[in-house]
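Inputs:
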Amino acid sequence: MEYYSQKAAETFPYTPGERPERSSIKINTNENPYAPSPEAIAAAREVMGGGRGSRNAAGAAEVSESGRADGAAGTDLRLYPDPESDEVRQAVVEGEREAGGIRLDPENVFVGNGSDDVLSICFQAFFPPVGAEGKALLFPDLSYSFYPVYANLYGVPYRKVPVNERFEIDSRDYMTPNAGILFPNPNAPTGIYKPVSEMESLLEYTLHKSLVVVDEAYIAFVGDAGSYHNHGRVSAASLISRYPNLLVVRTLSKSHALAGLRVGYALGRPHLIEGLTRIKNSINSYPVGILAQKIAAAALQDTAYYAQTTARIVATRERVTQRLTRMGFRVLPSSANFVLAAHAKVAAQDLYQLLGEKGIWVRYFNMPRIDNFIRVSMGTDEEMDIFLERVQRIVEGEA
Amino acid sequence: MEYYSQKAAETFPYTPGERPERSSIKINTNENPYAPSPEAIAAAREVMGGGRGSRNAAGAAEVSESGRADGAAGTDLRLYPDPESDEVRQAVVEGEREAGGIRLDPENVFVGNGSDDVLSICFQAFFPPVGAEGKALLFPDLSYSFYPVYANLYGVPYRKVPVNERFEIDSRDYMTPNAGILFPNPNAPTGIYKPVSEMESLLEYTLHKSLVVVDEAYIAFVGDAGSYHNHGRVSAASLISRYPNLLVVRTLSKSHALAGLRVGYALGRPHLIEGLTRIKNSINSYPVGILAQKIAAAALQDTAYYAQTTARIVATRERVTQRLTRMGFRVLPSSANFVLAAHAKVAAQDLYQLLGEKGIWVRYFNMPRIDNFIRVSMGTDEEMDIFLERVQRIVEGEA
């Protein structure tokens, strides 16, 4: 490790789920099974614009004699993008108002290169807060495994707080002096959602002391038909006007079927957004490209489309939960686009392997407390039927 | 600054150039005046694919009943991208071989969200290297002003080494115990290029002691027609096989007219690429989206197109340099897509302001040693004619 910094020598990076060949059923990384909004695709086409570009006889492209010919295909790409992603921020504001009656301004929104980028910047901007020496950042022992990776990379002291015996986050366990709290809601990989009132008590407790980051990567899938119809009641974003120590983090990867685009955002009071912006501008002035900004803004505006796909995913989740339960699985009550399930007799590692042999990719975590569970993302109904049929055979011993 | 970390409270972010209204002449951020390669645009269109998407009578989009319908418009975007950007890495390798006869493997290439992202990761991965206590990172006093921003953010001790009286980097000034060297070549905002032999002596001196990062953001513009015809002789990439302490950083923003896309990369021995990858995987597993990967890979392969646009920009630079010189400017000998110029009689700040009033945006740095220079990016020939005409009037006192 010659030339490595101590950081590089000692870091333990996050390991994402596998990326198998396309022909298989990939229900291991909580991707959305449906296409992104047609409006988003149309927005991208607009940027790409014009014709195919002319080619001369020799096959080499010609640069038009008159200069750069603004308006030619993809010309916008030659310019640096808006560093603050204002169009995306405006679309977020409109989406919150439309879906949940939550009133925000663009000054309440920070946009990053996926929510991982946003979380990484949160760590640098707010953990540990000034004067918090000796206190630790708190997050659940069962949660997004990137949290301890960030904490290690940025040297933030942390403590994992065990979820209770029902695998739930209990906010009372966090009411202890701390240097910040990461509260994923719904949590992953459990899928369990906690009502906004739990966040409220935490925010009261930590007010003027430390920051609470609510990671709402899966918030769209809360409720019987997804949160598009009750967003104002299920998202912590409704508390921003009352709590200066609240930051809500979101991603377009799951709810908006845009994992391949890399856009995430944070919501909070302007002084928190300013803190994130300071760090961003010390790393990369332009974290989100022009195409990503256009596509994200258009997607966020097409609430009708995503209400439909989300409801469909939620219906699939309920059906899969029922079927797995009937097969002898313990399925944690999920409010996300995946379920965490353990079978009474078949070991999770065996299930993972036997499904993988048939090209069905689920996620298995070799970690304390959940090493007998598999996490299953919701695919299309067709895919889930194939999955369920295969699981049925395995648990019936016909594997 | 309640809840801010010390880092957030004390950071001094980088300030990028302004983004004026489109109608003006924007020659202030070294963007490429020509459109990106038509092949790159075609690659993006391929990802977006299919038709516009069907809409029912009520105007709401319909999700096809059969499920996700892979192959529909933009469906690839629902999946996470390749975390290692292998297609881009392969295209970089082919481009190096084709343009300069430089033999590299994909294991020599690291891809990031613009070269700012790559540089930021370099700082975390290699500065200060293990055991380098008390030594400082070295870079020129006149250079990319993001370097000290990174150093401050990551707590890396640094020392600015003055460029000589001709504004050149002199490698002998860096032959002193150090914790790493940042060597921008051509340098910005001077535009001055130093031959590979200078890098070689530095690499010999620091071998097994510290890392030399050669920032080649502007390497494509070196030489009479740009480096596409002599890349193997002008780029430090030719030294990678001999020096394990060399990392070359590049960007597609300027040479490939893709500032709006956000793709940059680093070249070096596999153990250095592994160090960057470790840090990347502790921040964001997927820094480059699917569209960005496809567009970048296609652009890198279209060497014929970029050889043409680069040669054109270089010709414009030579013409602008001659004209400015005749008007009484001192123009530093530039090997980049911009020139740094000072007039004998008209103050740079006045020039900046008088040009701005006419919608011509150049860059002015209120910094020691260059506060009487303006930096002028090369636009189209038409744009530069308007710029030159305006400058002529100003220096003739008709402003």
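DSSP finds twelve helices and 13 strands in chain B. Flag for discussion at group meeting.
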